[in-house]
Amino acid sequence: MRAKLAYFTLAALLVFYFVLVGSRGVLLIEQGTPVTVVFGLAVLILPLIGLWFLWHTTRFARNAGRLARELEAEGGLPVDELRRTPSGRIDRDSADEVFARRQTEVEQSPDDWRCWFRLAVAYRDARDTPRARRAMQRAIALHDDSGEASRGAHEGGSRESG
């Protein structure tokens, strides 16, 4: 709950900042000189990039949460079996052991989104955020593709029709 509150607080602050920066860009454009118009347009690009990034990050978090809830309902969430140091940090050797098992699961079932989800958690536990994100994106894609295929079969249609 604290993580959601922090996320929404930071997102609201970012949106406020984007509006503030965007208004400054508009003021520069309204001055009408070639230099201020070019600079104002450049300033307007920053909030657009920020909004795009915020949208994609929010969508990723929402989709990962949706998969986590579904996996939890199935009883398939990974159990925290990691050893920890006295300070509470995850023991690296323990994370590597779990990661090796998760990677084997993915190699045995490369089209199972559940295996990719658990691999993403193992990457995160091993502090490899870029690979964790890619593995989660793969899990989301596999889940959504399998969901579309099953919906098309139940509706008597195919994904290629349209």
From TrEMBL:
Protein name: Tetratricopeptide repeat protein
Keywords carried by this UniProt record: Membrane, Transmembrane, Transmembrane helix
InterPro entries noted in UniProt: TPR-like_helical_dom_sf
Compositionally biased residues, Basic and acidic residues: 141-162
Keyword Membrane: yes
Organism annotation: Streptomyces ovatisporus
Residue numbers spanned by region Disordered: 140-162
TM annotation in the entry: 7-29, 35-55
